[in-house]
Specification:
With 472 residues, the protein is α+β, with helices and mostly antiparallel strands. The chain has helices at residues 9-20, 29-36, 51-61, 110-115, 142-148, 157-163, 166-178, 184-193, 202-213, 218-227, 231-234, 236-239, 255-269, 273-281, 286-289, 303-318, 324-335, 338-343, 349-359, 363-372, 379-403, 414-421, 427-441, 449-462; strands spanning 23-27, 42-48, 68-71, 76-81, 84-90, 125-127, 136-137, 150-151, 181-182, 246-247, 250-251, 291-293, 297-299. The structure holds cytidine-5'-triphosphate.
């Protein structure tokens, strides 16, 4: 165990606690991650006595005497040094919650404190006291659970989850992040208590969701969220994707499991949170647009448009950012069918140029999403689609090399058009601009200035405009 206590902070804390005559332990995530050999930059210390006094004494001994930020009501203190965060807390009988608004009620022993933590693997403590330095205190078999990959609450799950319902989300998050199994009683406890998630702020919930989205195989977390009905509490649109309907012997696919497959596929290639969110959102409007007719069978016409519109509303409610990231996801949802649709026709340069123009810088992400969207079980179909997408990809490369559409800037600007014809901002200027864009994208003219000026002059003539100081 001593090998985990390499950082000089441990010796400092040991001495400071001795001077104050307080017992002190390393506890929580740092111990868990050290045993799992995962990197961790936060170290939590629990002391039997005042966490704030201990933190102040420790800071005095550290290089540069860093500032101690503390919250008297909660008995917690925080020191940031270099890239490390040290958190000090007095042992308590009350539940341990970061972000809790409830002040501490009663001081307690180490055992009291461990009782009130979320999972056995997070309730491990290592002594920093002189006589027992480096010894592990593991009253609930946390090490064994770590070894077996089990998530289990130290107390009756309903007590632990009622103390802080966010812990249900944490259980799923750890299961997804670490590939751990939620032990049966704990799992049943989540199912019974899931509705209590409603008292938790959406900001805390989405932090956990994003950690699930960023885990190696996010479908693990989302299946658990669905099966425990936690997902139903905050993301009903995703729940609605689940289910298969049959009519006249025709079934459509289950869009929930399809979405998870696409998400896992994307996760294999990219750690980008927003590309992963694009996977989650790409078919979100399928339930709203679902229809059946004898000729086509099941259809989801326009789900890309409706889904793109839904993105903003859902992001706002989930407390996801409403900035460029949201716009990126909305764009991905809107365009997600385009690359595959292209393969169903003869791929003209002009169609490829339009796709590059609409996707802009995000064309590569869009192609990846499109590839990951192919989840058919029919291998021959998958092979055909992938081959077609490869052709589109090649064509994108060729066209881009030639025409540089990705960062398309019109070769003649609106201002220049106004100057040329002595116009004020008007409908004509807009018409010329858009005709110029179409001409470049359709390959009528090359993406260069000479051809563009010529085109603009001709277009102006067509519209009956004359050049200032010109005789014709
Ligand atoms: N904890 C808890 N209940 C919570 C949050 C935290 O019991 N709702 C306890 C756990 O013992 C946890 C410790 O506080 O290990 C530190 O919490 P935190 O830093 O939020 O999480 P970590 O477990 O360190 O994990 P991560 O850094 O991945 O969030």
């Amino acid at each position: 165990m001593l090998t985990h206590l390499k950082h000089p902070i441990f010796e400092t804390v040991k001495k400071a606690a001795k001077q104050l005559d307080q017992d002190v332990y390393v506890v929580g995530g740092f111990v868990r991650d050290a045993l799992l050999q995962r990197p961790c930059k936060d170290i939590d210390f629990v002391t039997v006595g005042s966490g704030i006094e201990l933190a102040k004494a420790v800071a005095q001994q550290l290089k540069g005497k860093p500032e101690v930020n503390y919250f008297k009501n909660f008995g917690t203190a925080h020191i940031h040094q270099d890239t490390w965060d040290f958190e000090f807390v007095g042992a308590r009988k009350e539940s341990y919650q970061r972000n809790s608004r409830k002040p501490i009620v009663e001081e307690g022993t180490l055992q009291d404190d461990q009782n009130r933590r979320d999972f056995t693997i997070n309730a491990l403590a290592i002594s920093l006291n002189y006589d027992t330095y480096g010894e592990l205190v593991d009253p609930f078999g946390g090490v064994e659970d770590l070894h077996n990959g089990i998530l289990r609450t130290p107390l009756d799950p309903e007590v632990t989850f009622s103390d802080d319902p966010l812990r249900m989300m944490r259980a799923v998050r750890f299961a997804s992040q670490l590939g751990f199994h939620i032990e049966d009683k704990t799992y049943e406890g989540i199912k019974r208590t899931s509705k209590r998630l409603s008292i938790i702020s959406q900001e805390r919930i989405i932090d956990e969701v994003n950690k699930i989205v960023l885990s190696e195989k996010p479908s693990i977390g989302f299946k658990l969220l669905f099966n425990t009905r936690l997902l139903h509490q905050f993301f009903p649109e995703m729940v609605a994707l689940q289910g298969v309907e049959e009519r006249n012997g025709q079934r459509h696919k289950d869009n929930f499991y399809h979405t998870l497959q696409v998400l896992d596929n994307v996760a294999e290639y990219s750690n980008d949170l927003w590309l992963r969110w694009s996977a989650i959102m790409h078919d979100i409007a399928k339930p709203n647009t679902k229809d059946f007719n004898d000729k086509e069978g099941w259809t989801f016409h326009g789900h890309e448009f409706v889904g793109s519109k839904m993105t903003k509303r859902i992001f706002r409610r989930l407390k996801l950012p409403l900035n460029d990231r949201m716009k990126y996801v909305a764009k991905m949802v809107l365009l997600h069918l385009r690359p595959i649709a292209l393969t169903k026709e003869i791929v003209t340069d002009s169609a490829v140029r339009r796709l590059i123009f609409d996707a802009g810088e995000d064309i590569d992400d869009l192609m990846l999403l499109s590839k990951c969207d192919i989840t058919s079980k029919n291998e021959r179909k998958v092979e055909r689609f992938l081959k077609n997408l490869q052709l589109v990809e090649q064509k994108i490369k060729d066209v881009e090399e030639r025409d540089r559409i990705r960062n398309f800037q019109p070769p003649v600007s609106g201002d220049e058009i106004m100057k040329l014809f002595g116009l004020k901002p008007s409908r004509e200027v807009g018409m010329i601009k858009s005709a110029l864009k179409d001409a470049v994208l359709d390959g009528v003219i090359k993406n260069n200035r000479d051809e563009a000026i010529n085109f603009v002059l001709n277009k102006g003539k067509e519209l009956g405009l004359t050049l200032p100081h010109s005789d014709n």
